[in-house]
Structure formats: C-alpha cells, structure tokens
Amino acid sequence: MTANRSDSTAGRSDSDDHGSDDGAPAEDDAVPVWLVERTYGDDELNLIILVYATEDGRRYHRRERALTSFTGPARDTKAGLLVSPDALGSVDDPTTRERYAEEASRMARQHDPGDSV
Prior knowledge:
Number of helices: 1
Shape: globular
Distance between the termini: 24 Å
Helix content: 10-25%
Number of strands: 5
Mean pLDDT: 79
Oligomer: single chain
Low-confidence stretches: 2-23
Strand order of the largest sheet: 4-1-2-3-5
C-alpha cells in the first residue's frame, strides 16, 4: 500500500457513517468503501485498525480506534463509508488488491453501507 493521508485520522471525526463528519466530501465527490479488514495493533495497546477498500481493491481508507471506543451504539463499525478521494491510499500489492476486492464486493452484496458489523 502506498502511504498517504489516509494512514492518519488526526484532525478527523471518527463517526464511521456516510459523510456526516465535519468536512465530509460532497455527495458527488465521495467514494464508497467497504470494511475489508479489522486488526488489533501490535505495537500499541488497545488499538483497533479498520481498513475500508473500494470494490476493485485498488484504493483503501484506514481508521484507527481505541478499543475502549467500541462500546455503545454511537460507536458502531459500519459496513461501508463514503470518503473523500484525498482520504484514499493506493493498494500496490496485487495479492492485497485482490483480497480487498473480494472482501469489499462480498460486503457490498451482503450489507447496506450503514449496517453495523
């Protein structure tokens, strides 16, 4: 993956919904992404890393959340998000790209974007 602004959520709200963050993309500029990976951070305690990707697997969006932020309905993890194009990174590894495409397509078939997963 190519590092870019999507590797950091600093200065962003982490509301995990469709464009309700302050500074959210305009509806016609937004790119739909789907949850493809949820991992526990190895180097920092109590950190969950959420990776969302486009259905073709070529672009990704990463969010980091404290494990303690997963309590309560206001902190649900959504199946899909709409994000600004400048909040997306490139997936350069062909194997990762294929895996992300398969998982994003599966999530899109099985869930509405606002579903909690």
